[in-house]
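Researcher: Please predict.
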Amino acid sequence: MFLLQAIENTKNNTQNNSLGKEIAQWIFENPIILLVSGVVVSVGFVWILTKVTKQIRTFGE
């Protein structure tokens, strides 16, 4: 029963996902945007990682 509802919900959400797929395809087809978005994600990850390590180092002081 739940599996059938999940399949129906997936079929109904395909129209909503089409915009996301178009944006992802546009980003993938433009190498400059792909490169910039990769750099932003990498810098964000490193920034979060440094914040976490600083919290671990200063824990208990």
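Model: The mean pLDDT is 81.
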